[in-house]
């Protein structure tokens, strides 16, 4: 279905299956019986010790009952030096869903994420996060949005002078409300989730691209967001780390009801994750809709993209 045609909204994503009373981990830490970890922190700890959907006796109630999209772009246009990057782009993301933004390099995929974070301003159109118009917001107002929406950058955007442990603990210390034992417990769990246990004291400069991205993902989760944006998570990453990151994105969605937007050119990765797809080409949204409809599309630009993605170089 073409992106500009009328379309019924995709169904909401799966309900989170985390149950606080599952008993897989106590949430009071420290000899002094410190205050309980926040709910998301508790849930992340449960994931890290092997909590699964099958272990839950029944699905939990959704944390939010609203059926409105958590994110919506309406008629967004932006240009750089007079060159159109996006032209009247429309899409939305429902709670608990994963949207994959696909397209060739330079079509504005990452620009969409940067506008959502408030790093860029569109020339026209509106962007709503949980019903709030964020275009034109002050930096102070955007800081409240960034507590709910966080981004994993291609380069990791880690603090060069801080170790892996210090990078992951930074959002927890900034947020406050946890004692040192709680912070260290959660940091250890998050680092374990992304498979970086062997580099906890290393500086970012000594890490591979894949490891930097994994640590950046752990730091993003430490901020306890509702929405996570991933900018080309599998680019320059080995298959083992790519699979681990993909699995973790899925677990966060199914067990915690996370909402994700994943920018990628990797169709195989998108097929594992996407509920809905936005396909950008020449500044326009050529498609927005369910993954299965995207794969079945006869639109020439989409067919060309899929054919090139599936191309296997002949052996020499």
Task: Report on this structure.
- The structure is a single chain.
- By secondary structure, this protein is an alpha/beta fold.
- It has helices at about 40-50, 110-115, 140-145, 165-175, 180-195, 210-220, 240-255, 265-275, 290-295, 300-310, and strands spanning about 70-80, 85-95, 100, 125-130, 130-135, 150, 225-230, 260-265, 275-280, 285-290.
- It has ten helices and ten strands.
- Helix 1 (about 40-50) crosses helix 5, helix 4 (about 165-175) packs across helix 5 (about 180-195) and helix 5 (about 180-195) crosses helix 6 (about 210-220).
- Residues about 5-35 and about 50-65 have low confidence and may be disordered.
Characteristics:
316 residues, alpha/beta, Rossmann fold, six-stranded mixed β-sheet, four-stranded antiparallel β-sheet
What is the strand and helix layout of this fold?
Elements: H1 39-48, E1 71-80, E2 83-93, E3 98-102, H2 109-116, E4 124-129, E5 132-133, H3 139-146, E6 149-152, H4 164-175, H5 180-193, H6 209-222, E7 227-231, H7 239-256, E8 259-263, H8 267-273, E9 276-281, E10 284-290, H9 291-296, H10 300-310
Parallel strand pairs: 3-8, 3-9, 6-7, 7-8
Antiparallel strand pairs: 1-2, 1-4, 4-5, 9-10
Helix pairs in contact: 1-5, 1-7, 4-5, 4-6, 5-6
Class per helix and strand makeup: alpha/beta
Helix content: 25-40%
H and E order: HEEEHEEHEHHHEHEHEEHH
In round numbers, the mean pLDDT is 79
CATH architectural name of the domain at 95-118 and 136-310: 3-Layer(aba) Sandwich
N-to-C CA distance? 40 Å
* Number of strand segments: 10
Task: Let me know the CATH homologous superfamily of the domain at 95-118 and 136-310.
Answer: P-loop containing nucleotide triphosphate hydrolases
Strand order of the largest sheet: 6-7-8-3-9-10
The unreliable regions are: 5-36, 49-65
Strand content: 15-25%
């Amino acid at each position: 279905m073409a992106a500009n045609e009328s379309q019924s909204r995709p169904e909401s994503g799966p309900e989170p299956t985390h149950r606080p009373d599952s008993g897989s981990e106590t949430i009071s830490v420290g000899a002094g019986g410190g205050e309980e970890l926040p709910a998301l922190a508790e849930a992340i700890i449960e994931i890290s010790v092997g909590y699964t959907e099958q272990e839950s006796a029944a699905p939990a109630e959704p944390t939010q009952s609203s059926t409105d999209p958590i994110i919506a772009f309406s008629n967004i246009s932006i240009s750089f030096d007079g060159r159109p990057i996006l032209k009247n782009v429309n899409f939305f993301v429902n709670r608990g869903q994963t949207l994959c933004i696909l397209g060739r390099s330079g079509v504005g995929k990452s620009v969409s994420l940067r506008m959502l974070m408030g790093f860029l301003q569109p020339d026209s159109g509106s962007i709503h996060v949980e019903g709030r118009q964020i275009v034109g917001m002050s930096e102070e107002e955007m800081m409240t949005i960034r507590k709910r929406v966080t981004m994993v950058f291609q380069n990791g955007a880690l603090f060069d002078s801080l170790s892996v442990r210090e990078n992951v603990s930074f959002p927890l210390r900034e947020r406050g409300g946890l004692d040192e034992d709680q912070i260290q417990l959660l940091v250890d769990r998050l680092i374990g989730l992304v498979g970086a246990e062997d580099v906890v004291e290393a500086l970012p400069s000594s890490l591979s691209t894949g490891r930097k991205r994994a640590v950046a993902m752990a730091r993003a989760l430490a901020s306890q967001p509702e929405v996570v944006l991933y900018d080309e998570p599998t680019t320059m990453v080995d298959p083992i780390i790519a699979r681990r990151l993909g699995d973790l994105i899925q677990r966060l969605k199914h067990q915690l009801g996370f909402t994700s937007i994943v920018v990628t050119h990797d169709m195989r990765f998108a097929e594992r994750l996407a509920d809905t797809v936005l396909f950008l080409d020449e500044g326009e949204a050529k498609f927005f809709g369910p993954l299965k409809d995207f794969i079945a599309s006869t639109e020439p630009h989409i067919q060309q993209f899929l054919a090139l993605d599936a191309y296997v170089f002949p052996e020499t």
